[in-house]
Amino acid sequence: RERERERKKRAVQREGDSEEDRERTRVEKERDEVKRKEIIAKKEQEEREAEAKREKFRRAGRDVVTGTVVLPHPGHQVGKDTEVSEQEQRCNNALKLRGLQWGAKTSYEDAWNEYRAASEAGHPCGLVGMGEMLKHGEGRPMDSAAALKLFRAAADEGDASGHRNLALCYSSGMCGDLEESQAMAVLHHHFAALGGDPASHMAMGYRHVHGTSVPKNCNAAVEFYTIPAEELVRAVQSFKGVGVVEKHPLTPSVHKPAYPPEHDEDVVDYYQYSAARGEPSAQVALGQMYHYGAKGIAQDVGEAFKWYTKAAEKGDGGAMGHLGNMYAHGTHVKADNATAVEWFRQGIDKGNPVAMAGYGYMCMYGMGVQQSYSEAFKYFTQAAEQGNQEARFNLGTLYIGGHGVVKDYAKAIYYFTLAANRGHMLALYNLALMHLNGFGTPRSCPNALQFLKAVAERGQQGQGLQRGFKLYHQGQIDRSLVLYSEAAEMGFDVAQGNAAHLLDLGATPFTAHRKDKALRAYEMSAQQGSMDSEVKIGDYYYHGWGTSRDIKKAVAHYRIASEARMAQAMFNLGWMHEHGVGIPQDLHLAKRYYDMSIETSQDAMWPTLPCLAGLWVRMAAREAITRADKWALHLNREYRSYGVDIPPSELWLPRLADIWDVVLVSILSGFLGVTVILKVTLASQRMAQQRDRRGG
Hints:
The structure is a single chain. The chain is mainly α and 696 residues long. The chain has helices spanning 2-66, 80-97, 108-120, 124-136, 144-156, 160-172, 182-194, 198-210, 218-237, 261-276, 280-292, 301-313, 317-329, 337-349, 353-365, 373-385, 389-401, 409-420, 425-437, 445-456, 463-473, 477-489, 493-505, 515-527, 531-543, 551-563, 567-579, 587-600, 605-638, 649-658, 660-695. It starts with a helix and ends with a helix.
């Protein structure tokens, strides 16, 4: 009976579980159906929003830019993801056509058409691209007001580039009638950085370094600079063509003279002429210019390969090493380890360090040869002893990983530093990580930040410096200023100084009457250690340009620059001490500053010598007056009983000052009289001597 009751109990329980399962299944099916309907409705809503967005972009592109109706892109209907990818590809092609990617050829009209097609298809990158071309005057007249409308339309859709361009407009205040607002600039840079824009990451990093409208925070700056630095490092590690960023100041300074663009042209002409004549060293140099896009030459790895091949055929070891690298990394040619090793070995026979470093790389990773860290170390060491930066970097990687050698962070830092001093990008990045994490050195956020900033500034964002320099020497001042202003916002010190110089000159209506913006640019440059900018800031406060006149601030900036051995600042302080302008008059201190100015720079000699002469006259006059007062006091004491009472200089000097012209004429007359007397006396002596000779 007990077993029967247990059996019935289990049967009832199973029946109840089955009913619960059926109920649960029914509820889940209903829930799935509701979700399916919601997904369908959401997709339909997204399609409607996408169509509305495309119509909005078409309307924006039609109303703001062209003024005419543009027909939709006659492509076939594709899915949303495919469509976005296609429009992004259009915008990437347009970037190349604008010459904003390494080695790209310029065609502004084709770039405009690509952007317009992308905007008609509903992608915000088209609006941003057209806005940038209008802002920079690329193929069309500069129209910052129209560009601003396009940037706003793109930013309303959450486009990172649109936010970045709005931030640049708010920061500079040079877009239409938009008022400058650093708070709005920070806001839009923040949105752009969240969207992954590298330029805004650099701008926010720079602001956190110096506390410009944001809290001064080294760790936050490191986080912002890490993103563009890592992006550039990935490009280098994947052997993509990364060109050279050349920084040229527009004005000469003590530390770096002005760089005329004709110098690049002369250098290129020389190497092209010598290479055409068959000189291997010139062919290698020309190949490197094409390889990295240096000296104003557009990057062209195919042309570089051609010149390397010609030089290698003539037995140049450096050309053999470069060809080996191109075959090893698949640059312009299909990757071929065997061919790379062959070129490296031929270069090693010539004793070339490039080939040695390349062969060591092949040994380190076992590419075309047997993997051997000891062989890699051997060839890296030989190349490093000849100054090869790639070999020094690879030695650092061996020491930091303990591959074939005892792990030694100190030696890794040593070799990374040697390579970084020659501009090796990966060495700079590794040094940043080691300082940030305390590998082989105490943790130092400022040092890590310095290296990360140096890496980030070697990316494509630095191309604006070269374009601005070229436009300036072509006489296109306004376009040059826009490029320099954008680079200055990202923290390029040369761009800050150049933008300040253009605003200071005010040579065009666009740059005129902007002394306040010039002062801000000089202050940004001075924050990064530019002593020339410190002197200019002192001038601005002394004269009251773009700000209220403040002699004390002018003196403070002059003193900062004079401590850095700036001759102009020393001269200014000497003049102010001589005349007692803003600081106590001190002729001896003035002479000291004048002397220091001449000792620091020979160029300061001729402007300073007249001041020293005048200062000597003032000091001599002061000494004479002091002696006259002493003699007057002595005579008054000795001969007071005889009624002698010579007044002090405080009484008779003002009277002489009132009749200074009479005094001056009297002094000149006295000199003239003495001169005449001396001349008559000498003439009489000569006549007497002649009579004596005749009588004898």
